[in-house]
């Protein structure tokens, strides 16, 4: 990258991840963005917010994945939205580009957040990936774990199967590689463990929303979480555990109160429901090894 501007003179290609929502959401979406960058031979750059600084070690020795301060769009990329002029979904919907367009802009914005629309979700189609492969810079804003849908893209399928023959362990391996706590954070963690947990006969990890009412005395598993807890999904994935998930309490007595997660993989907040090959909506589960969050709220 030439300082302060986008450089199209080399064959290097990039994905710029933009921070969005809380820490749990960020960890899930960074992991998704990393695998996408890996499978498409792109360099991943993180537009890290100040509240993430100092939490994690840099994952790549002798280099940094932090977006430089003098990057051309550094001051404005947080404001990019679905209707941004260079948003991929918007450009498709407005017929500014199509699959035969040869002269493409040097960068495009990808809206992959929980409220993305049909045209944004075409990102997960092979034909769209062929088009995006010609764009040097992709600026991605996401707050969801969209990684499972990468397995639906047929041009990625063979390589992903080699990398992850067990699809239920993808986040476990990638997350433990990417998110090592910094020395300061690790000292706080170990001190807390020594003070409160080291002598415990049984340890239960709990991450809940404020609206959950429950009695935990009967639980003796390692992790209890609520259906919409993104940080709970991070914990189960990093720990390699299938959690017990507490269902939302209705006015009447809930029976059962909880269910076992179908895998250690984080749930999918906003999965696509479009079959790219058939070009029709589908409402069945497209990613069978991942639970859709809507099924357990």
Description of the molecule:
The protein is of the alpha/beta class. The protein is built from 8 helices and 10 strands. It has a domain at 14-179. 26% of the residues lie in helices and 13% in strands. Strands 2-1-4-3 form a 4-stranded parallel β-sheet, with helices on one face. Helix 1 (23-39) crosses helix 6 (170-178), helix 1 (23-39) crosses helix 8 (230-239) and helix 6 (170-178) crosses helix 8 (230-239). The relative contact order is 0.14.
Q: Averaged pLDDT, please?
A: 82
Q: Which class do the helix and strand fractions yield?
A: alpha/beta
Helix content: 25-40%
Number of helices: 8
Order of secondary-structure elements: EHEHEHHEHHHEEHEEEE
**Poorly predicted runs of 5 or more residues:** 1-5, 211-221
Please tell me what the overall shape is.
globular
Residue share in β-strands = 5-15%
Name the strands of the widest sheet in spatial order: 2-1-4-3
Alpha carbon gap, first and last residue: 44 Å
**Number of DSSP-assigned strands:** 10
Radius of gyration: 20 Å
Biggest beta sheet summary: 4 strands, parallel
């Amino acid at each position: 990258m030439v300082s302060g501007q986008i450089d199209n003179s080399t064959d290097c290609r990039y994905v710029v991840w933009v921070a969005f929502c809380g820490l749990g959401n960020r960890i899930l979406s960074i992991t998704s963005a990393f695998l996408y960058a890996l499978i498409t031979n792109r360099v991943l750059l993180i537009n890290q917010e100040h509240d993430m600084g100092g939490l994690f070690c840099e994952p790549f020795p002798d280099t940094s994945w932090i977006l430089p301060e003098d990057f051309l769009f550094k001051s404005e990329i947080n404001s990019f939205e679905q209707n941004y002029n260079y948003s991929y979904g918007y450009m498709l919907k407005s017929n500014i580009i199509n699959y035969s367009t040869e002269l493409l802009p040097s960068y495009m914005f990808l809206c992959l957040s929980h409220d993305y629309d049909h045209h944004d979700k075409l990102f997960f189609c092979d034909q769209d990936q062929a088009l995006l492969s010609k764009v040097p810079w992709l600026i991605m804003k996401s707050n969801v774990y969209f990684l499972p849908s990468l397995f639906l893209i047929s041009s990625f399928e063979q390589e992903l199967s080699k990398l992850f023959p067990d699809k239920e362990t993808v986040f476990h391996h990638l997350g433990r590689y990417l998110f090592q706590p910094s020395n300061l954070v690790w000292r706080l963690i170990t001190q807390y463990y020594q003070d409160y947990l080291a002598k415990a006969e049984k340890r239960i990890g709990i991450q809940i929303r404020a609206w959950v009412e429950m009695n935990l005395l009967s639980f003796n598993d390692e992790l209890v979480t609520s259906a919409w807890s993104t940080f709970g999904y991070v914990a189960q994935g990093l720990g390699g555990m299938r959690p017990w998930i507490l269902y939302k309490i209705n006015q009447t007595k809930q029976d059962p109160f909880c269910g076992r997660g179908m895998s250690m993989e984080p749930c999918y907040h906003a999965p696509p429901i479009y079959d790219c090959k058939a070009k029709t909506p589908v409402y069945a589960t497209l990613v069978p090894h991942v639970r859709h969050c809507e099924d357990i709220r």
